[in-house]
Design brief:
This protein is mostly helical. The chain has one domain. The protein is built from 17 helices and no strands. The chain has helices at about 5-40, 45-65, 70-75, 80-115, 120-125, 125-145, 150-170, 175-195, 210-245, 245-280, 285-320, 330-355, 360-380, 385-410, 415-440, 445-465, 470-485.
Length: about 475
């Protein structure tokens, strides 16, 4: 049965959903931050590199796991009872096949990266593929219904348990296996929690027509996901293949902080944006309004966060990590800028999916792919610093292309978007001058990290009020409304 929801109700549920998703994010990222620091002191860069090899492979197989029917279930508006059964059958079947594929591919992956330890690690980690298949449908149902509040406390508990397992085993000298076991524990809880929250249970109701419809949508999602995941991980692949496991470990840690504070925030907002924009797919004007709203609030956070992390990376690495992690400073600075720029393009990708045109993502990604591979392979001769710099240039070019395409779909001018973001860019530039000036006067320790960060936040707020008081007022009102309603 077709479900209808008023724009006002969609907006209210979007605010609430974003609030609870973001609250869950804040609650867990503090724990993740502490866990990363502790593990970086207990494990060597090469051990982080080995687990990164396995994570890359699992990431690709994860996309094939359920053939995108999770996304299809979120976007679907009719015959949901049948669609949920179809999605469950597909996800279970595909997870079994992919587990076997991972087991057989492990020696080949080890040969490609010239790292024999990959074989047992990958085979154990691939058990998580089976678990993901079991949990696909209930998790998609929670996202489709914007029930992020229900997942908050269980999600926090899951991350606490994962952190305790990883730190405890690393402390006892289990090395890279501490990360493997912790990830499997995390996958088990990722399955158990959604099943405990949702009331749905599979039945024998099945329809081949619905299966073909969902696979038609899902295959496009999988296609763009595979190419997109390769795009996201191509820097890891090239660093690991050309520069080795130790370099990959350092690059991974360099990526961890900006990914934790910027990309995870963007992903949290976009997780809510997809079901929200899908509900507006029939109204181009409302969709354009929602697009600009998400674009504004992502830029409000991502731009100053990226520049701030780039400027304070030397103090951060010196304060929290050991001497062997010093080579991570420059890559961390560049990666922070790359992720900040890419946050603009994230909204474009969600728009393509929400209007049932994931094929646009596939086509655009295939256009970008040769340039990405060629550029990163070329700049790898300058080590991980060269790869990180190449990522910045590629992210800028990709964001421009995506923005041009989405403006044609929604019917606005590219210059409108530039004008829309200009106050945020100007406020970020002023903040950067203040942070850089203060940081040069302080030592590379905790004080030299915290004082410029606080001062930067104050300067940024003041500059934003100067250039666009309405933007600051709207952001403040949105946060207050979220707190009041939730």
């Amino acid at each position: 049965m077709q479900t209808t929801t008023s724009p006002a109700e969609i907006g209210t549920r979007a605010v609430r959903g974003t609030f609870w998703s973001f609250l869950s994010f804040l609650s867990t990222k503090a724990l993740t931050f502490i866990t990363t620091i502790i593990l970086a002191r207990l494990l060597a860069p090469a051990e982080f590199g080995i687990i990164a090899y396995c994570t890359i492979v699992i990431g690709f197989l994860d996309l094939l796991n359920n053939f995108g029917v999770g996304h299809a279930l979120i976007a679907r508006r009719d015959r949901l009872d049948v669609a949920q059964n179809v999605a469950f059958v597909i996800s279970i079947g595909s997870s079994i096949v992919l587990y076997a594929v991972a087991w057989l591919m492990a020696p080949l992956i080890a040969d490609f990266f010239n790292e024999p330890q990959i074989v047992p690690l990958l085979r154990v980690l691939s058990i998580g593929l089976l678990l993901v298949g079991i949990g696909t449908v209930p998790m998609a149902m929670l996202q489709r219904d914007l029930r992020f509040k229900a997942y908050l406390l269980p999600g926090i508990a899951r991350n606490v348990i994962k952190a305790c397992v990883a730190i405890g085993m690393a402390w006892q000298g289990f090395g890279v296996w501490s990360l493997v076991v912790a990830e499997l524990v995390n996958k088990v809880l990722e399955v158990v929690i959604p099943w405990a929250i949702v009331r749905w249970r599979p039945t024998r109701t099945f329809d081949w027509g619905v299966l073909y419809e969902m696979l038609g949508f899902g295959i496009n999602i999988v296609a763009v996901g595979l190419v997109g995941t390769f795009m996201v991980n191509v820097d890891y692949i090239i660093v690991g293949r050309v520069l080795g496991g130790a370099a990959l470990g350092i690059y991974t840690i360099a990526y961890r902080v900006p990914e934790m504070f910027i990309r995870s925030t963007v992903d949290t907002v976009m997780m809510v944006a997809f079901p929200v924009l899908s509900r507006l797919q029939a109204d181009k004007d409302q969709l354009a309004t929602a697009y600009f709203g998400y674009l504004r609030y992502l830029a409000l956070f991502a731009f100053p966060a990226a520049v701030g992390i780039a400027l304070l990376a030397p103090a951060f690495v010196t304060t929290f990590y050991t001497e062997e992690w010093q080579p991570a400073i420059v890559p961390m600075q560049l990666i922070a800028l790359e992720i900040g720029i890419a946050s603009v393009a994230y909204v474009s990708g969600i728009v393509y999916k929400s209007i049932n045109r994931p094929d646009l993502l596939t086509k655009l990604t295939l256009i970008k792919l040769p340039w990405v591979v060629a550029t990163l392979w070329f700049v790898s001769q300058w080590g991980i610093n060269g790869v990180a710099a190449g990522m910045v240039a590629l992210s800028l070019a990709s964001t421009v292309l995506d923005s041009i395409v989405v403006q044609r779909i929604l019917g606005f001018r590219f210059v409108d978007m530039i004008r829309f973001l200009a106050p945020i860019v100007a406020a970020t530039a002023i903040m950067a001058l203040a942070v850089a000036g203060i940081a040069t006067l302080l030592p590379l320790n905790f004080v030299g990290l915290i004082v410029p960060a606080i001062a930067g936040g104050i300067v940024y707020s003041g500059a934003l009020a100067l250039f666009s008081r309405d933007t600051l007022r709207e952001a403040t009102t949105m946060v207050r409304a979220a707190l009041a309603r939730s």
